[in-house]
Write a structure and sequence with these properties.
Elements lengths: L1 H16 L4 H11 E9 L2 E4 H15 L3 E12 L2 E10 L6 E10 L2 E9 L5
Parallel strand pairs: 1-6
Antiparallel strand pairs: 1-2, 3-4, 4-5, 5-6
Helix pairs in contact: 1-2, 2-3
Amino acid sequence: MNHRIDELLHRNLQEVFGEGDATRRRAAIKELYTEDCVVYTPPGAFVGHDALDKFAGNLRATHPHFVYTPHGKPQVLHNAGRLTWGSGPRGESPDYTGLDVIIVRDGKIAALYVFLDGNPT
């Protein structure tokens, strides 16, 4: 389970929130998230694949040239994990940083909590 949680954290960062192609992002959401998933972010909570896809796509559209870079290694505890990251133009200091915390059920993300250290500009 530890390896799966590590994989979910990294793939979510790159294949959901870092993905600009809507078809690939939607496929990743289906593979990585439970159908009844809940994503908690500063703007609000998003329930289910459609809401997550819309939120991630809209966020990506505001910063299409930004990349997400993990900071350190994930920590895993039972059915949960966390990963710190930064986001900004490739090769530059991040414009903002954050922390993802996931709760995993049946090998998929059931809940994602996104904590931001700075606001995206």
